[in-house]
Amino acid sequence: MKSATLQCSACQKVRYCSRTCQAEHWKKGHKGECKILAGMHKHIVDEKKVEEKLDRDDKSVVVRQELPKSQHLFDDDRTDKLHRYIPPNIHANVGLFNLGNSCYLNASLQCLTYTTPLANYLLAGEHTKACPRHEKQFCFFCELEAHANLALKTESQKGYYRPYTFLQNLGKIGEFQLFQQEDAHEFIYSALNCLQKSCLEIVGKKTSILEEETTLIYQIFGGCIQSQLKCRVCAEITTNFESFLDLTFDLSMGSSIEEAIHRYTSIEEMDESVGYKCDKCKKVVTAQKQITIYEPPRILMITLKRFDMMRGGGKINKEIIFHERMNIKRYLSKNSPENSSYLNYDLYAIIVHYGHVIFAGHYVAFIKVSGTWYLFDDEQVKPVPTSYVFEQPPYLLFYKKRVGEDEATPAKKNPVKDIPTPKISEVSKSKIFPLQKYLRYPSQ
Known about the structure:
26% of the residues lie in helices and 24% in strands. It is built from 13 helices and 23 strands. Strands 8, 13, 16, 17, 18, 19, 20 and 21 form an 8-stranded mixed β-sheet that branches. The chain has a 5-stranded antiparallel β-sheet with strand order 3-7-6-12-9.
């Protein structure tokens, strides 16, 4: 028997004897189970101190262990300001050239670029000033900063540029191959992993798990769920906390995003065949399980399981209803530290996959910029009507949490009306001429 010398680079919890073994495990479902960042750890607490929906009569309160704000690696108040501030004169003019099955990368980069708190930080140029690898080695954070400053500030004409540097360093971003169709969800997670590592490199010292969950990336995308198990024999409750960077839902969980979240947070009855052993009863028992949102993130990323890895990555083309505004207040844990009167999220981006299997097809992004929805289809960037966006089959959805005075404000209507439905991959065949290092504009 071969020794398990290889380790999953994502979750770092599974070992393999060969690359072939790793690939087979990934295809059989590890992709959907894997947690890409090391910070996604469970925090087990005293079962006797819980107050939650499974036991409303218990008056004791459990809270997740947290670091005081003074020990955060990135100032929490600063993140709030980055989240609230809407930079003026942000444009949607720059597309990304498809250099050979790179649409997954293009769509993902565009969604990250238009994530408000991250965009504000990138536009400030702070990372490159502190990065020890800047202009010496490839740094995903530095390249994303350069891309954001080019894409968001270009206002004169529509154009596109070639993301050579990202593609030349795919192997440093994750397990990706040049000119091969890859999974946009996997790329987004690998990108966040790279951004997280860059944040920790700047710290320059060994950090704890709790400290790692206070970086800029975790403060933007990170949230926490609470999982509870209640023994049906003795009523003992076990509570776990787990960090997340996205919520992943099976398409069988409902016909809408809200219905999927409702089922995700509903109480589940577990019979003895599940094999749950109560620590107090010292035997296998029936139990109730419930997952709720303990700490909602500033940016909520939702992934729908559209690919069946047990059937070779076949596409699940089920329609799903989603809206421009979503309230998740009722899905919070009863003991959540979140104190918002409302908990509204605005949809600002989606990634859509067209095709029948995960290893083929085409990715595009729809992103709301300054109140208008745009289609980002590789080189092509054009405004689209709101109705067209909500007819799409989303794969990934990005929501921004409303804060402060905007918390209860109704959503604004898209000013773009009566725009003809665009054709996907309808790329202009105009000649191009260079303006900057990689930027290209269609000639007049």
